[in-house]
Amino acid sequence: MFRGFPYLTLGTNFIETSPASKLYNCIAWTAEDDSRWWWPHPYSYWPPNVAMEETREAFVEAYGTIGFEECADGSLEAGFEKIALYGTADGPKHAARQLSDGSWTSKLGPFEDITHQTLESLHDHGLTPYGHVVAFLRRQKT
Amino acid sequence: MDYLSEASEAQVPEWIFNLPSLALSGDYPKPNGQTVSWSNGDIHFDIEDDPHEQLIFESMVTPAERHFTFRSWDFLALDNQQVRTSEQLRFQELTRQWQIECGSSSSLTWITSRPSYLQIIAMGEMAIPFILEELHNRPDHWSTALSAITNDNPIPQEHRGNLRAMAEDWISWGKENGYIDD
Question: Domains in chain A: how many in total?
Answer without folding.
Answer: 1
